[in-house]
Specification:
GO terms for molecular function: 4 iron, 4 sulfur cluster binding; isomerase activity; metal ion binding. With 371 residues, the protein is α/β, with parallel strands linked by helices. The chain contains 12 helices and 13 strands. It has a 10-stranded mixed beta sheet with strand order 1-2-3-4-5-6-7-8-9-10. The protein has a 3-stranded antiparallel beta sheet with strand order 11-12-13, with no helix packed on it. The structure holds pyridoxal-5'-phosphate (PLP) and iron/sulfur cluster (SF4). Pyridoxal-5'-phosphate binds next to strand 2 and strand 3.
Length: 371
C-alpha cells in the first residue's frame, strides 16, 4: 500500500452501472412498443398508463429478461400495462391496505404495535402493474426530504414499542447511497429501533444497484434485513444471483416475498422452481402473498382457493426452509392472516386427528394433564 497514490478510477457508465439502467429505463408506450412489439391489449394499456394511474417504467435489464414476442411472458405481465387496468371489479380498492388511515405521522404507517413502515420515496426501478401502492408510486413526489421525515423520526423516538422499521416506498434503494444511509443512520439514532428492514425489488429489477459501495456503507448499521420480491424463476439471473450473494455474504439476511399472480406464477411447479432457486442463493422464501385487491388488477389476481391448493401441493414436496407462509393481507389494513390447507380433521377432547401430506390420518393424543 505505501507509496501508492489513490488514483480515482474513471467512472465507466454502461449497462452494468445502476445509474445507466435508471437513465435508460423505458417509460413510454412507444418505447415499450419499439422493444417488444406490443399486442393491442398491451398498447392500449400502455397508452392509458401514460395518462392515468401507475406510470410505466422498466429497466433495460428487466426488459432483457422478457420474451420479445409473447405477451403472456411472466416478465411482460408484471411490467407491461394491459387494457384491463382500466377495469374495476367488485372488491377493488384504491388503497387496499388502508395505509392512509393508519398513517401515524407523514410517511409512517403503523398497523402493529411493534412494527412500522417508513415510506421514503415514491420511485421504483420498475413499476409493477400489480403494485399495492399504485395510488402513490411514481406520482411525482420523488424522494421525501429529511425535514418531511422529521415527525416520523420523532414519533418513533416517542414510541419505544416500535422495534422493527421497514424502510419502503416506492423502492428505497433507488435513492442515492448517501441519502439512503442518512435515513438509516437517523433510524439508528432511535435506541428502541432494533431491526431495520429494507424493502426493495432492486435485486430483481435492478441488481446492478447492489454494489460493493452500497453494502460497505450500510454494514455499520446492522442488523439490516433485506426484504425482496422475486415472483418467477425467470428472474433468477446471474446478475440477481451476484446481488443476493453479495448481500448475504455481507451479513444481510435476505427474505423473499412473492405475490401470487394469475398467469405469472400460479402453478406449483413454477413456485417450486422459484423457491428452490432462492434457497440455493441463501434467500429465504418468507411469504407467498395473496395479491391485494388494488383497483385495476383483477386480471392478475387469483381466487384464494388457488393459493391454498398450491400450498397443499408444495407441502411435503419442498423443504421447510423453501416453503413460505401463504398470507392474505386483509383489506382496509386489518392485518396479515396466514392461511393454508386445513390439516386438522377433527378435535375431540384429548385427541386431535390430523391429515398428513401423504393423505394418512393420524391421531395425536394430548397428555393427561390437559391444556
Ligand atoms: C406487512 C406489514 C408489516 C410487516 O409484517 P410482517 O408480518 O412482520 O412481515 C408491518 N407493517 C405494515 C404496515 C405492513 O403492511
Ligand atoms: S417495486 Fe414494489 S413499490 Fe415499486 S412498483 Fe413494484 S411492487 Fe410497487
Amino acid at each position: 500500500m505505501s507509496g501508492r497514490h489513490a488514483v480515482p478510477r474513471k467512472r465507466r457508465s454502461g449497462p452494468k452501472d445502476w445509474g445507466w439502467q435508471l437513465r435508460h429505463a423505458i417509460d413510454t408506450a412507444e418505447g415499450l412498443d419499439r422493444e417488444l412489439s406490443l399486442s393491442p391489449e398491451e398498447l392500449a394499456g400502455a397508452r392509458r398508463a401514460e395518462e392515468a394511474g401507475l406510470p410505466i417504467r422498466v429497466t433495460p435489464y428487466y426488459l432483457g429478461l422478457s420474451d420479445r414476442t409473447d405477451p403472456r411472458c411472466p416478465i411482460r405481465l408484471q411490467c407491461v400495462p394491459r387494457a384491463e387496468e382500466s377495469v374495476e371489479v367488485p372488491g377493488d380498492l384504491a388503497d387496499p391496505l388502508g395505509e392512509e388511515a393508519h398513517e401515524v405521522a407523514p410517511n409512517l404507517v403503523q398497523r402493529y404495535p411493534d412494527r412500522a413502515l417508513l415510506l421514503a420515496t415514491d420511485r421504483c426501478a420498475v413499476y409493477c402493474r400489480f403494485c399495492t401502492r399504485s395510488r402513490m408510486v411514481g406520482d411525482g413526489g420523488g424522494v421525501v426530504s429529511l425535514e418531511r421525515l422529521g415527525p416520523a423520526f420523532a414519533y418513533l423516538a416517542a414510541h419505544p414499542e416500535v422495534r422493527d422499521v421497514i424502510l419502503s416506498g416506492g423502492d428505497p434503494l433507488t435513492m442515492s447511497t448517501d441519502r439512503l444511509v442518512r435515513v438509516v443512520a437517523r433510524l439508528r439514532e432511535v435506541p428502541s429501533v432494533e431491526t431495520i428492514r429494507l424493502a426493495t425489488r432492486t435485486p430483481v429489477t435492478l441488481p446492478q444497484r447492489i454494489t460493493g459501495e452500497l453494502v460497505r456503507a450500510l454494514k455499520p448499521h446492522h442488523p439490516l434485513w433485506v426484504m425482496t420480491h422475486f415472483n418467477h424463476p425467470r428472474e433468477l439471473s446471474p446478475e440477481a444471483e451476484r446481488a443476493c450473494k453479495r448481500l448475504v455474504d455481507s451479513g444481510f439476511p435476505v427474505m423473499n416475498q412473492t405475490v401470487l399472480l394469475r398467469g405469472v406464477n400460479d402453478e406449483a411447479a413454477t413456485l417450486e422452481a422459484l423457491f428452490r432457486g432462492l434457497v440455493r442463493w441463501r434467500v429465504r422464501p418468507y411469504y407467498l402473498l395473496q395479491a391485494d385487491p388494488v383497483r385495476g388488477t383483477g386480471h392478475l389476481r387469483t381466487a384464494v382457493g388457488r393459493g391454498i391448493a398450491i400450498m397443499e401441493q408444495l407441502q411435503g414436496r419442498l423443504s421447510g426452509i423453501a416453503l413460505p407462509k401463504l398470507i392474505v393481507d386483509t383489506p382496509r389494513g386489518m392485518g396479515k392472516v396466514p392461511i393454508g390447507p386445513d390439516y386438522v380433521v377433527s378435535r375431540q377432547p384429548g385427541v386431535t386427528r390430523l391429515r398428513t401430506h401423504r393423505g394418512v390420518e393420524v391421531d395425536y393424543v394430548d397428555p393427561p394433564h390437559g391444556s
